[in-house]
Amino acid sequence: xxxxxxxxxxxxxxxxxxxxxxxxxxxxxxxxxxxxxxxxxxxxxxxxxxxxxxxxxxxxxxxxxxxxxxxxxxxxxxxxxxxxxxxx
Length: 88
Fold this sequence. Notes:
- The chain is mostly helical.
- The chain has one domain.
- 70% of the residues lie in helices and 0% in strands.
- It has five helices and no strands.
- The protein has helices at 2-9, 15-22, 27-40, 46-57, 61-80.
- The radius of gyration is 11 Å and the shape is globular.
């Protein structure tokens, strides 16, 4: 529930709680948190999000990077005004 709310709002101030939630053993919680982190595109979430994408979907590091970049580009500017949501 909390992961869903934080992901829906996807504001930078929710990065730390979402990083904790992306490591949750309940897959649905981790998946929602990963979605929120992808929207926020904060560089400190990069490592935990790569790990989660690997755990949740079996992505290789390259596939996870590609997913993170496309998610940040599509959601970043609308969610946080970063003009594309760069992970760098």
